[in-house]
From TrEMBL:
Residues 20-99 form the Large ribosomal subunit protein uL15/eL18 domain. Belongs to the universal ribosomal protein uL15 family. This is Large ribosomal subunit protein uL15m. GO terms for molecular function: structural constituent of ribosome. It comes from the Eukaryota. InterPro entries: Ribosomal_uL15/eL18, Ribosomal_uL15/eL18_sf, Ribosomal_uL15_bac-type. Signal peptide: none annotated. Transmembrane segments: none annotated. Keywords: Ribonucleoprotein, Ribosomal protein. GO terms for cellular component: mitochondrial large ribosomal subunit.
Length: 224
């Protein structure tokens, strides 16, 4: 926008924006019954409360979990966000929950923020694409609870956060056991499927080439 000054807003056309979600706001949404803490929380869950608006076309890429309210956060939640501070991560894990940071490309994010509209158009549920090179390191880092990091490394970082914070990780963790695949947009619905709200059915692909394209095996090769 200002060709004569490359240092002023030089990244304005590539900058990613994340909607702040404080632990205070998350707790309030749970208290008011807008969010069920016993179910996985992700972009779709948060947008379904109609308290947030994400516009992918203006480079809004999801949620940033912030530490405001960390001292009083008591809910054991399983939450997936796109960015999270270390204090917010520690607060959720101290309460017996789990945090994962995960990337959404524009198409996947458009599906996630309004699933009903996406399903009504009969669109195929897309695969989440791999993060761009500039974000790959962040999502592969267990310290950030990145979804591309190894589970053993995640456990080490959880324990390290507990040691530094002076708290013990709860033994009985009240969170869901299943995680979305690295290319999956919705819990329980595989990529490549079509959802019919009228029939209340999920139609999985039958064509072999279609199935191969959306298979987890192909995704693992893509991300490796």
């Amino acid at each position: 926008m200002y060709p004569g000054d490359k240092l002023f807003n030089a990244d304005i056309n590539t900058r990613r924006e994340y909607i702040p979600l404080s632990l205070v706001e998350l707790a309030r949404l749970i208290d008011l019954g807008w969010i069920n803490p016993r179910q996985p929380i992700d972009v779709s869950t948060l947008c379904a409360t109609q308290k947030f608006q994400i516009i992918p076309k203006v480079r809004q890429y999801g949620f940033d979990l912030t530490e405001e309210g960390a001292d009083s956060f008591l809910y054991s939640v399983d939450i997936e966000v796109q960015y999270a501070t270390q204090s917010a991560i520690a607060a959720v894990e101290k309460a017996g929950g789990r945090v994962r940071t995960a990337y959404y490309d524009v198409e996947s994010l458009e599906a996630a923020i309004n699933p009903k509209a996406w399903f009504e158009k009969g669109k195929v549920i897309p695969k989440r694409k791999a993060p761009p090179p500039s974000l790959m390191e962040y999502y592969m880092d267990a310290k950030n609870r990145g979804y591309l990091s190894e589970e053993t490394e995640l456990e080490k970082e959880r324990q390290l956060s507990a040691d530094v914070g002076g708290y013990s990780l709860p033994k009985d963790v009240n969170i869901t056991s299943s995680l979305k695949a690295i290319d999956q947009v919705f819990h329980g619905i595989p990529s490549g499927s079509v959802v019919s709200l009228a029939d209340k059915k999920v139609f999985a692909p039958k064509n072999e080439l279609h199935r191969e394209y959306y298979s987890n095996l192909r995704s693992d090769k893509l991300y490796s």
